[in-house]
Design a protein that fits this description.
Elements lengths: L2 H12 L1 H11 L7 H12 L8 H22 L11
Helix pairs in contact: 3-4
């Protein structure tokens, strides 16, 4: 193993804590956790399309998923105003 490989391995291990904390924070909310999860998967996939890298496509896909999943939830919310007693 060369010095560069060892340095890369140590740097990767050092970032595992940061990665796990960031994923835990992004996925902690019960509603809307699909968008950050899909964003992470697309970014980690290394997808490249039309010469544009995975980071851009991850943002696009994540925003699209968030927009699509947010619309039905907004329609299901109860109407505003006073509620009748039980």
């Amino acid at each position: 193993m060369t010095r560069i490989e060892v340095t890369g391995a140590v740097a990767g291990l050092a970032l595992l804590g940061t990665l796990s904390a960031s994923l835990a924070a992004a996925l902690s909310a019960t509603e809307g956790r699909e968008a950050p999860a899909i964003t992470f998967v697309v970014a980690a996939s290394g997808l490249s399309f039309l010469g544009i890298g995975a980071a851009f496509w991850a943002l696009v896909v994540g925003l699209l998923v968030r927009a699509v999943l947010a619309k039905p939830a907004a329609k299901l919310s109860p109407p505003a105003g006073p509620q009748p007693p039980d």
